[in-house]
Amino acid sequence: MDTQAVRARLLKRREELQTRASRASADLRHESDPLSADFAEQVTQRESDDVLGAISESAQQELRLLQAALRRLEEGRYTTCAVCGEPIEEERLQAVPYTDRCRTCAEGEPRRGERPRTTRGPGAQPPGKASGTARSPGSAPPRKG
Known about the structure:
4 helices, 2 domains, 50% helix, mainly alpha, elongated
């Protein structure tokens, strides 16, 4: 893998996101478009602020992931899965350049020879089996007798 090309790609994306976050922040502060005196217009502006806030937060989150990817690249760990230690597929790194997980770990699938991971506590029943009387919606309760 050409680490210089990867680094350039990550840096370019970082610059794009910094620009996007900066513009969204400026728009949220209404630097170029102060709040209107009209109440109905203010409602519309506030709804736009919600969207801008989400855009800014999304950009900030991706920036954090990109910074972590750049650190892993510098440390020689960019292509190694943080969960299982196996190589991250090159196609995956092309699609999601800041990922720190291989496809298998990202999807939560166990690798060969591993025990499946569980998100339920010990002794938990599989979904729909907790009471032993799983029914489909709208079905009649079981008859007694």
